[in-house]
Write a structure and sequence with these properties.
- The protein has 602 residues and is an alpha/beta fold.
- It folds into two domains: 227 residues, Cobalamin-binding domain (Rossmann fold, 3-Layer(aba) Sandwich); 255 residues, pyruvate-formate lyase- activating enzyme.
- It is 34% helix and 14% strand.
- It is built from 20 helices and 19 strands.
- The strands form six sheets. Strands 2-1-3-4-5-6 form a six-stranded mixed beta sheet, covered by helices on one side. The chain has a four-stranded parallel beta sheet with strand order 15-16-17-18.
- It is globular, with a radius of gyration of 24 Å.
- The protein starts with 14 loop residues before the first helix and ends in a 26-residue tail after the last helix.
- The model has no long low-confidence stretch (mean pLDDT 93).
Length: 602
């Protein structure tokens, strides 16, 4: 095999493939019996910004008989060189080929990375289809947000971990150890794994369909497989990662990161994460402060992000920020996902007292009616009052996130985005005499499984084009910049996010034709996906642009995330009437279903 070092001068960013970073863990290969490769199926800079990988990396490497190493998708230039020089895909730590590992675990956080999984398996010389693998091949496992509808990837994975990986990891390892000791066959191992709560083995289930293409049934074929797979969740967050690997090159989130809480109770109806990560669990403030100190000492970072779905909702967040600012004078703190209000603004000012950096807010919709539909619980008065304060305090650069194509949305709702932006611009000129710099991102709404909008149809490209034209013509002002996503990418995302296991064939065909790195605009080839759907005898619009009946059996119905279908239906019906649901932290329980899970909401 060609020496890897002889190729690195031919590719962009060789440090993507060298390993050896500060705080990486290298164990003795020959003396460690269980070998696991962890991957986020995208390039190094994105994969190293994923929070699940370091958590699992540290938990696994803390076990004496287990080693965990990392692997990410090589960029196209490296793939070309690897194929030309007959180099199989390898881990970063010890450069062992992936096919020599016992288990390969993928974190699936975005549907547009699906073909990358197939490319990585093929580069590893591991059969892409699980049905073609035998006892000599690694177990291929997936976790992450996408596996809450695992069906489109059912043909490629042996097992899916539903929910928090920290919770199920120990049981999975114990079962694997026992299976190795007993000499179980691959089939017997899958049966044994299927008995673990939160583990789904798709090959042990059979799907049947109605003549019109709707799912008729998904039933276990062996007694070990459960009718329903219940999400696992940790009741108490595991200790934060305080010795994360420090890359040699800049990554997407190039800073320390501490998960201060997991879950969100705000109930935005478009937000899958807000449903599947329930219940909300908070990390003690003292633990956070100690973790910040340790990260600074162990990594040399001067910036730490306090991560959660809604960081401003962390109890005592203002005290936490003040304490950290006092203790660490030169530390830059960042708080993603802040709600639009004066309290969040005060937090931002405490974070950057010397420099007015750009602010990012997500009104999501222009009209108050639409914000009630999506349960954003944000009035226009609150938005304008907040922005008046923004400009008075000296911020002149803001970024606004909106969604286009939301359920019940009309062209008037799109015009309301233009009107809201105009009001914000006018506020700035009135308060400061200056023109603000406003960047607007108008993403296309893609319905997701396990949300109140899981039954709705996505807008057609023609509908989206008409809405984009209103935004384009209405937002031609100095200082205003508009961007939006490719509607064809959103169409495919919507199809994959709510698909059944027949889409495995589509994904396989698209990959065989050359589709991968679909999340990257320069590599996305919609025509390949069109051909793949046609060859598979399926219609992409059936999955993306068809409204489901409320009593239709959905492909992910066997996955129990705790929030009940009855609650999602009630939220959908309230959305159609533009009725808001209050945050359960501020009043009575909304009876989403988690209150029936022992200790979930305590």
């Amino acid at each position: 095999m060609t020496d890897l070092n002889s190729l690195l001068h031919k590719v962009q960013k060789p440090a993507r493939y060298t390993g050896g970073e500060w705080n990486s863990i290298i164990k003795d290969w020959d003396s460690t019996p269980i070998r696991i490769a962890l991957s986020y199926p995208d390039i190094y800079e994105i994969g190293m910004s994923n929070m699940a990988i370091p958590i699992l990396y540290n938990l696994l490497n803390s076990q004496t008989d287990v080693l965990a190493e990392r692997v990410f998708t090589p960029w196209v230039d490296m793939i070309k060189e690897m194929k030309a020089h007959d180099i199989p895909l390898f881990s970063l730590e010890t450069k062992h080929p992936l096919k020599e590992f016992n288990i390969i675990g993928f974190s699936l956080g975005h549907e547009m990375t699906y073909t990358n999984v197939l490319e990585m398996l093929a580069l590893s010389r591991i059969p892409v289809l699980s049905s073609e693998r035998n006892g000599t091949h690694p177990l291929i496992i997936a976790g992450g947000t996408c596996v809450l509808n695992p069906e489109p990837m059912a043909d490629f994975f042996d097992l899916f971990v539903i929910g928090d990986g920290e919770e199920v990891l120990q049981e999975l390892l114990e079962t694997f150890r026992a299976a190795k000791k007993s000499g179980l066959s691959r089939e017997q191992l899958l049966w044994r794994m299927a008995t673990i709560n939160g583990i789904y083995a798709p090959s042990l289930y059979k799907a049947e369909y109605h003549a019109d293409g709707r799912l008729k049934s998904l039933t276990p074929t062996v007694p070990e497989a459960s009718l329903t797979i219940r999400k696992r969740f940790v009741k108490q967050l595991t200790p934060p990662i305080t010795k994360p690997i420090v890359p040699y090159i800049e990554i997407i989130h190039d800073r320390g990161a501490i998960e201060i809480q997991r879950g969100c109770t705000r109930g935005c109806r478009f937000c899958q994460a807000g449903i599947i990560y329930r219940p909300r669990r908070e990390r003690p403030q003292t633990e956070i402060e100690k973790a910040v100190e340790d990260i600074l000492n162990n990594c040399g970072y001067d910036e730490v992000s306090l991560v959660s779905l809604s960081s401003g909702d962390y109890p005592g967040i203002d005290q936490l920020v003040n304490n950290l600012s006092r203790r660490f004078e030169n530390l830059a703190l960042s708080l993603p996902s802040l709600h639009i209000n004066s309290f969040s603004l005060d937090l931002m000012e405490a974070l950057s007292p010397r420099k007015k950096m750009g602010l990012t807010f997500a009104p999501e919709a222009g009209s108050e009616r639409m914000r009630n539909v999506i349960n954003k619980n944000l009035s226009e008065q609150e938005i304008l009052e907040t922005f008046a304060e923004v400009f008075e305090k000296g911020w002149l650069s803001v970024k606004l996130y909106f969604m286009v194509g939301l359920p019940t949305e009309s062209l008037d709702d799109i015009r309301a985005i233009v009107e809201l932006v105009d009001k914000i611009r006018t506020l700035c000129k009135k308060n400061t005499g200056k023109t603000p710099q406003i960047r607007i991102n108008a993403s296309t709404f893609a319905p997701k499984a396990h949300t109140p909008f899981q039954w709705v149809a996505q807008n057609s490209e023609e509908e989206l084009t008409a809405k984009h034209e209103i935004l384009l013509s209405g937002l031609q002002h100095k200082g205003v910049r508009l961007s939006w996503g490719n509607p064809k990418v959103s169409l495919l995302e919507a199809a994959l996010s709510r698909g059944d296991r027949r889409l495995s064939k589509v994904i396989y065909l698209a990959w065989q034709m050359g589709a991968f790195f679909d999340a990257w605009e320069e590599n996305f080839k919609y025509e390949l996906w069109q051909k793949a759907f046609a060859e598979a005898g399926l219609d992409i619009k059936f999955y993306a642009q068809r409204e489901r009946a409320l009593d239709e059996l959905l492909p992910w119905a066997h996955i129990d995330v705790g929030v009940t279908t009855e609650y999602l239906k009630s939220e959908f019906e309230k959305a159609l009437k533009a009725e808001a649901t209050p945050d359960c932290r501020e009043g009575s329980c909304n009876a989403c279903g988690l209150e029936k899970w022992e200790s979930a909401c305590s």
